[in-house]
């Protein structure tokens, strides 16, 4: 199971690095900017999580495979995505959705391994899932996706709860992993497809 968690962690790193690289392409950044944006998107959330949990040095300093995956992803993006205008508009949010689902479970798993409470684990999953995207959007001078009305953080929270409860009820590790990832992914993709959103908190100024 540890090997599968590690495999999915690297997959999530690649997916979020792709998300960051595509965002950099849309904003016409230079190669260094692409690398920076891909890196903070891929490892930003996990770095915040590890700092909060006190597990330092953070994961990517202990294991250079994460940086290697980011570099390979950026290089492949340069090679195969030469004209950002031709990249389908749905590719960035879909890639982000996969990264969100993967990293949510990774964050919950790490907190549970430290024998923290289920609630804390769900919060760590949320931070892992959305932290990198928040940094990416801020660097692109956009309102972070997690703060918009479209369902985003909710998908991460529900996925984290599903994973925690499944393990608590004695489900097999792989079933809990796939069930939680699938749930978060379906919710997020459904929100993208049908523009599902939570009610906005709208304080209208009196006339």
What report would you give on this structure?
By secondary structure, this protein is mostly helical. 73% of the residues lie in helices and 0% in strands. It contains eight helices and no strands. It has helices spanning 2-26, 31-53, 59-62, 65-80, 91-113, 118-139, 153-168, 173-194.
Point out poorly predicted stretches. none
Percent of residues in β-strands: under 5%
What is the helix tally?
8
Helix/strand/pairing category = mainly alpha
- What is the C-alpha radius of gyration, as a whole number of Å? 17 Å
Largest sheet properties: none
Principal-axis shape equals: globular
From the N-terminal CA to the C-terminal CA, the straight-line distance is 60 Å
How many runs of DSSP E, i.e. beta strands?
A: 0
In short:
The protein is an all-alpha fold and 207 residues long. It contains eight helices and no strands. α2 packs antiparallel against α4 (65-80), α5 (91-113) runs antiparallel to α6 and α7 runs antiparallel to α8.
Map the helices and strands.
Elements: H1 2-26, H2 31-53, H3 59-62, H4 65-80, H5 91-113, H6 118-139, H7 153-168, H8 173-194
Helix pairs in contact: 1-2, 1-4, 1-5, 2-4, 2-6, 5-6, 5-7, 5-8, 6-7, 7-8
Keywords: Cell membrane, Membrane, Transmembrane, Transmembrane helix
Pfam family, one: Gly_transporter
Family: Belongs to the UPF0126 family.
